Amino acid sequence: MKKILISIFLILILALTVSACSNDSHQSQDETTALESASMVDNVYVDTDRDPGFGYKLCYMSKNLTGNVGIVDSAGNIVIEPSYVSAFPIRKDRFVVEKTVDNSNHAALVDENKNFLVPFFRGVIRQTGVLAPEGTPPILVIEPLDGKIRFVNTDGEQIIPLEFDSASIHQYNGFFFGSKNTEAGETLYVYDYNGKELCVLNNGDYAELRELEHGYTLLIGNNNNWLKFGLKNSSGKVIIPCKYEEIKVVGADRIVAFDGELESLIETSNVANMFDGDGKQLTKDGEFARIFFDDGDKIGIGCQSATIGAYEPEFWLIDLNGKAESGKYDSIDKDADGNFVCKKGNQTCLLYTSDAADE
């Protein structure tokens, strides 16, 4: 009887041990990915997978790469101590760090010597999003939670004397803007990537921004307090008013204009249209959500947004008048030879440009 009791006791101990090991194994699986990507350098753990840019890596005090974060350089030297809730480089030797004070985010701009170029303040530091030539330092938006917005360079120096109520953080090619509230609405102040003022736009105003292909001129305007684009032809006539998010000249007498969410294909409010060289609209509003053509193309891609009950957009080939040149597909991509790779379900086919109308 005594032997039986001992056996039962041993079985219980074994069962508990197996259960504990199983729980430890399950818990460790959740940490495996982080632990595999961590390497120890100078008493901190470096995330070898994530790339914040400019040759830097993020570092942590915790082996599972959680908690406060800092930055190490390519040689493994600690540049920013892991004592912040967020840290990221905005160029070589310039960093934005963030900490939490009284449940509020505070941000600062720091150099490689840990000098505070912009001291901690309650708010955030962003980039304007201006698309500039390679090597051009970013322009930063200092955005206090309870104050006016200002633009500074990467040394923390204010480069525009005005202060604003809101600022551009979207990606625009070669320019950014700040906005000031007035009784008549918002006034938009537009600057190039060097901080030079290009124009000031009250509601309804527009200005010439740059020359485009085939003699067209891109216009920029304040449309009910939103920055929008239009187009002039070579005769100086406004053929497309400033009401679009994006305008692309795709031929001597063809223009594609888009309004909506540039980064989304499933917004039902997205609208794309084609125009001829006189500004005549060739497509119907709502017919297309996006239209993709390159300059000189005779065949392009049309896209319709997802609708209620249909969660994926549809694509088809179209001609320069917006007329269908193929059936509808789940996706269409253009390869390096200018042919179209069309997918529908599990099926993939290659349509040559010259064959599209015969499909």
Describe the overall structure.
This protein has 359 residues and is mostly beta strands. 10% of the residues lie in helices and 45% in strands. It is built from 1 helix and 28 strands. The chain has one helix at 2-36, and strands at residues 38-41, 44-47, 57-60, 69-72, 78-84, 86-91, 94-101, 104-111, 116-127, 140-144, 150-152, 166-167, 175-182, 185-192, 197-201, 206-211, 217-223, 226-232, 238-244, 246-251, 254-259, 271-276, 290-292, 299-304, 314-319, 331-334, 340-344, 347-351. Strands 6-7-8-9-10-11 form a 6-stranded antiparallel β-sheet, with no helix packed on it. Strand 18 and strand 19 form a beta hairpin. The N and C termini lie far apart (85 Å). The relative contact order is 0.05. Residues 1-35 have low confidence and may be disordered.
